[in-house]
Design brief:
heterotrimer; A alpha/beta; B alpha/beta; C alpha+beta; B: alpha/beta; Rossmann fold; 2 domains; seven-stranded mixed beta sheet; six-stranded mixed beta sheet; 40% helix; 19% strand; C: alpha+beta; Alpha-Beta Plaits; two-stranded antiparallel ribbon; 4 strands; 10% helix; Pyruvate ferredoxin oxidoreductase, alpha subunit (chain B); oxidoreductase activity, acting on the aldehyde or oxo group of donors (chain B); THDP-binding (chain B); oxidoreductase (chain B)
């Protein structure tokens, strides 16, 4: 059964389309989708060209968390909760920046919603502008690498910790590199009452400057370098991490992407690479990732 | 059953009788007590089949209602001023999605400078958004308009958000005797919400599409049609209300003493009572003045306004807001409705930011206009002597 | 053509199927049916839901749907059996 049909307008090799398909498959289509404005919305919800095989709503950029909460309340009030779970699909900008208020409200009130952040690490729908989840050093159109600036200066916002701090019953990160893990986590989340936050790393071919053949391999390298820790929290406790057998240096991940290319050319590029390696090391330590 | 209640309660009680499924709100003066009353009812188990939630902002509250309404719920919220403006992106979105959310706006001035007191600047900013807007004069009228708002908004010919405007403080905080509706009356008037389309896994439709240039225009045409159809639906429903309850609030506009009035005065909201009082006194003295109360502001009842004002050779509009850079927003609409006629035209912005509008001020403005002592065009009411300085 | 204008722009499901995206790409995947183990990795990872495992005789193999395949190469990159290769479409081949 198709819940997200062919013919949508995603770029060839789009990471978030992979994530969406696996989430919907895990829920066997028994869900209501609230989607924020962004890549996913624009590729899938053109009038009379909808790719969706599940009830779907797009309202605004910054309110998917609240819209989902509203659907959940309506289903409760109308005694229709058996119809399916309420799921949010929101991009990283919609989640960590503009929509963090409505997301926080949804988490704070502990609505029975599975919030999926499709993290392609920038505003990719509008052409790669930096978001709160853009990693350090990334060349975006609003943090362009030049003589003085070497891409994004700050770190990637730690949404996982922010979600955990809300006291959620379930928080996890995932990656399209591990599709079975996405499905397992979504199924698990669906069995837990309350607000759930799952952040899925979804490479963007155009924004990252990779080929479709590298969508999965680059996502895997993000995990293997510990730049994208794959973790699971239940009721505030870290219950599971995906261990890394032989952690790779961050250069291996960075060098295959156009967004980090300047780091290998700029005289101060190595400084940034070192800082990025430090972030990876901290991640490995924090979550005890090394096997 | 007549009871002396505050404006807040007159709304909350009526909302309860309409059996909403989802209420989402955020506190803001002078609206808060409406939702406090509803929260209390919810807490006491008086709101059966209803979920009540305090959102993280008015923006969140309106967004919750978008989701709930799309999923088939009857929805309600109340707000005003900054809260209404914060909601505006969502409310305009709801209008385009044709979601019949009902809200009460307890009209309050906008910042800056910050003012918690009453005028109509907040709702005027949402004039063009696709929300039905009516203004009420008393708490009884406010109470009665709640079931009517649901019925009109949810009418399959309409399907648009509905905003009842009631003056903050002047009505919300006022104790007035209100003949409170009972459940049977409301049930006989307002059927359960039966959405023509809604989100369900049994028929997985896509809501909130984006429309490319080849079809966007047509959606706006359809929205405009729905608004214009709402004129008829409103009028029918106003009449039906009068039949069901015996309380006739009139149609889109209510004219008094207009047949032979040389000067017709236009007013909206709670100020109308005072204007009526002055008009009556002047009439006793043989001054030919009349009153037109505008109840429906969007869709704008241009035909009815023109018909009511056709005999007057002077028109005076009392404004509670300013369209900065032009005139008062109600005057602009009235003037446009009167196109083809050529009366003298005056409009006065009074009571901005809650400033008291004494009877004497109204009397003076009306008398001065009547006696030809005022230049045509837009004016502010009583303004203190002031000096404009930097700091 | 008459434009259908639904209430609030509500659309019916799965209409994207009307948009054949098969001509987007320059390459297309070819499955070596001998090597294919029908493990479903490509099926789960195709962003365009256009490669599925189907029964062919007494065996199961991955079959791409060229009506929609954008030639991204995800299936090629993830195949654990090395059973998928990407080929350039005829029209993109440059003559010597």
């Amino acid at each position: 059964m198709t819940y997200f049909a062919s013919g949508h307008g995603a770029c060839p090799g789009c990471g978030l389309a992979i994530a969406v398909r696996n989430v919907l498959d895990a829920l066997e289509g028994k869900c209501f989708v609230a989607n924020s404005t962004g890549c996913l919305e624009i590729i899938s919800s053109q009038y009379e060209r909808s790719a969706w095989g599940v009830p779907y709503i797009h309202s605004l950029f910054e309110n998917a968390g609240a819209v989902a909460a509203g659907i959940e309340l309506a289903l409760k009030a109308l005694k229709r909760t058996d119809e399916g779970k309420v799921v949010v699909f929101a991009g990283d900008g919609a989640t960590a920046d503009i929509g963090i208020g409505t997301l926080s409200g949804m988490m704070d009130r502990n609505h029975d919603v599975i919030y999926i952040c499709l993290d392609n690490e920038a505003y990719q729908n509008t052409g790669n502008q930096q978001s709160g989840l853009t990693p350090m050093g990334s060349n975006t159109t609003t943090t362009p690498a030049g003589a003085i600036m070497l891409g994004k200066t700050g770190r990637k916002k730690d949404m996982i910790s922010i979600a955990v701090a809300h006291g959620l019953p379930y928080v996890a990160s995932a990656s399209v590199a591990f599709h079975a893990d996405i499905r397992r986590k979504v199924k698990k989340a669906a069995e837990i009452e309350g607000a759930k936050y799952i952040q899925i790393h979804t490479p963007c071919v155009t924004g990252w400057g990779i080929d479709g053949k590298q969508t999965i391999t680059s996502a895997k390298l993000a995990y293997e370098t510990a730049l994208y820790p794959i973790v699971e929290f239940e009721n505030g406790e870290l219950t599971r991490v995906r261990k890394i057998k032989e952690r790779k240096p961050v250069e291996e991940y960075l060098k295959i992407q156009r967004r980090f290319r300047h780091l290998f050319k700029h005289p101060r590029g190595q400084e940034i690479i070192n800082l990025i390696q430090k972030i990876a090391d901290e991640n490995a330590k924090k979550y005890n990732l090394d096997l | 059953m007549k009871k002396v209640v505050r404006g807040f309660y007159s709304i909350a009680h009526a909302v309860k009788l309409c059996k909403p499924n989802v209420i989402a709100a955020y506190p803001i003066t002078p609206q808060t007590e409406i939702v406090e009353n509803l929260a209390k009812m919810y807490s006491n188990g008086e709101l059966e089949g209803c979920e009540y939630v305090t959102a993280e902002s008015e923006f969140g509250a309106a967004s919750i209602l978008v989701g709930a309404s799309a999923a088939g719920a009857r929805t309600f919220t109340a707000t005003c001023s900054q809260g209404l403006i914060l909601m505006s992106e969502v409310l305009l979105n709801a209008a385009g999605m044709r979601l019949p959310i009902v809200l009460v706006n307890t009209n309050r001035a906008l910042s800056a400078p910050l003012s918690i007191w009453n005028d109509h600047q907040d709702s005027m900013v949402l004039r063009d958004g696709g929300l039905i807007q009516i203004h009420v004069e008393t708490n009884q009228e406010a109470h009665d308009m709640v079931p009517l708002a649901f019925k009109v908004a949810e009418n399959s010919k309409v399907m648009l958000p509905f905003m009842i405007n009631m003056d903050g403080f002047k009505l919300t905080h006022a104790y007035e005797p209100v003949d409170l509706l009972d459940q049977d009356t409301v049930d006989s008037f307002l059927p359960p919400y039966n959405p023509p389309v809604y989100m369900t896994t049994k028929n997985p439709l896509t809501f909130g599409c984006y429309a490319p240039p080849h079809c966007y225009t047509e959606f706006r045409v359809v929205m405009q049609r729905a608004m214009m159809r709402a004129l008829d639906v409103l009028e029918e429903t106003y009449r039906e209300w009068a039949e069901v309850t015996g309380r006739d609030w009139g149609g889109h506009v209510v004219g008094e003493f207009l047949d032979d009035a040389e000067l017709a005065i236009v007013s909206m909201g709670s100020l109308t009572g005072m204007v009526r009082d002055v008009v009556k006194e002047l009439r006793k003295n043989g001054v030919k003045v009349g009153l037109l109360k505008i109840r429906t502001f969007r869709p704008f009842p241009a035909k009815q306004v023109k018909e009511a004002l056709k005999n007057a050779n002077k028109i005076l509009v009392f404004e509670r807001a300013v369209s900065f850079g032009y005139e008062g927003p109600v005057g602009i609409e009235v003037k446009s409705a009167l196109f083809g006629l050529n009366p003298e035209f005056y409009s006065f912005a009074v009571g901005l930011g809650g400033r008291d509008v004494p009877r004497e001020e109204l009397m003076k403005i009306i008398t001065d206009v009547y006696e030809g002592k005022v230049e045509q065009g837009f004016h502010f009411g009583t303004v203190k002597e002031f000096e404009e300085v930097i700091v | 053509m008459v434009v259908r204008v639904t209430l609030g722009g509500v659309s019916k499901p799965l209409l994207s199927k009307n948009m054949k995206t098969g001509d987007w790409g320059t390459e297309y995947p070819v499955v070596d049916e001998e090597k294919c183990t029908a493990c479903k990795t490509c099926e789960h990872l195709c962003p365009d839901a256009c490669i599925v495992i189907v029964e062919k005789g007494d065996t199961k193999v991955a079959v791409p749907d060229y009506d929609y395949c954008k030639g991204c190469g995800v299936c090629f990159s993830v195949c654990p059996a090395d059973a998928i290769k990407m080929e350039l479409k005829e029209i993109y081949k440059v003559e010597d």
